[in-house]
Amino acid sequence: MEGGAPPTHDLLAFALPDDQATPVDDFLEGHPRYKQIRFLNRGAYGFVILALDNQSEEQVALKFIKRGPQHITKYVDREIANHMRLRHPHIIALHEVFLTKTHLVLAMEYAAGGDLFRYVSARRGLPEDEARWFFQQLMVAVDYCHRMGVTSRDIKLENTLLDGGQWPLIKLADFGFSKDPKQQSEAKTRVGTPAYLAPEVIAAQPGKSYDAQKVDIWSCGVLLYVMVIGRYPFGMPSDAELDPMRRLSRMMERTMRAEFSFPADKPLSDGVKDLISRILVQDPALRPSRHEIQAHAWFMQGLEPGALNFNDAIVQESLANQPTAEMLAEVHSIVEEALQEVASLPGVGQPQISKSDQLQTNHSGDDDGAPHLMMASEELGYLTSGTLP
Q1: Antiparallel, parallel or unpaired: β 372-376 and 359-362
Q2: Which residue among 23, 34, 145, 265 is least packed, with the fewest CB closer than 10 Å?
């Protein structure tokens, strides 16, 4: 979505400066196409580095997932297959997949503006006009994904990247928990990030499915709340004295009841409060559809005529140019090969990063074998206390 006159503001660059980049081994040594530049980020899946594509002379983000059955799951295969189907200006492009001696690598479009989490955190929340500019783009991206049959199940600020332009355009990223019920199966498992989980995901029972599109809608509502308020809706500052697991429990209890409020000291329009209140409801059947959100008066403000039809031609083109069976088979073969655990080369390991950058994953209690309730090691504290760092 290119339309609308976005608010004027100073864009902060959130990429690590070269002199602050975390030192890592050269995982691309001798690669014929890519040259490593610097470390970007790390998650439960592995890590991401910035590299130069010698063919296109453009910078790309390379996502490294360690080889072996402990790291390469069916979710990796699904992530790649679903991501390959999505080609959209508001979705990070997946260029190719390849193997190194130690890792499976996803070569993706690089978003120079960092992620929306850092952007919002630096401002302790955004003015409504700016939040609306991002939210309009997010809903265009979600509309496209859902029309393509793909649900994210992990929409959050950290997975919403910025292109680095003067008026930032968002790029939805990370389809590690994505689902396409026509290609895979119905959504049943408890996956996602605690602060963004919908009540029905927390309460998910083995063998019982939920509407993953309505789960994405819930996460979009949480994201909008955080943008305009500067904290998470179901974490309260009053919980700060509790131990981390108790704070998490309190947050989950409020989420299950859809119990949140708008701070009295935060001036907000009735429009944005109405939209958030319509989205963050316990019963998914009562949540608005993406079309109803796009028709909401607050959402429509400043929207360029024709923006709601932005996806029509893109969806048609995408459906006409889906990955072939041969392409999917080749990717599946690469993933199968990545399942074979390869011993780390002497002197080569994971990038050395601070504990605050690490993600921890709980692998228990999931009927589909999925790692669930992912959170950063420091995230448990701030998301349950209600404030951004």
Answers
A1: antiparallel
A2: 265
Is residue 113 within 8 A of residue 13, CB to CB? The reply is: yes
CA 57 to chain centre: 27
Would you tell me how many other CB atoms lie within 10 Å of the CB of residue 186?
Answer: 12
Q: Report the catalytic residues.
A: 154
pLDDT at res. 95:
95
CATH class of 18-111+321-349: alpha beta
**Residue list, annotated binding site for ATP:** 63, 109-111, 158-159, 174
Distance in angstroms (rounded) separating the CA atoms of residues 329 and 326:
5
CATH of 116-313+362-385, one of 3.90.550.50, 1.10.510.10, 1.10.3720.10, 3.90.25.10: 1.10.510.10
Least confident range from 12-21, 33-42, 218-227, 364-373: namely 12-21
Q: Decide if 160 contacts 126 (C-beta within 8 A).
A: no
pLDDT at 307: 87
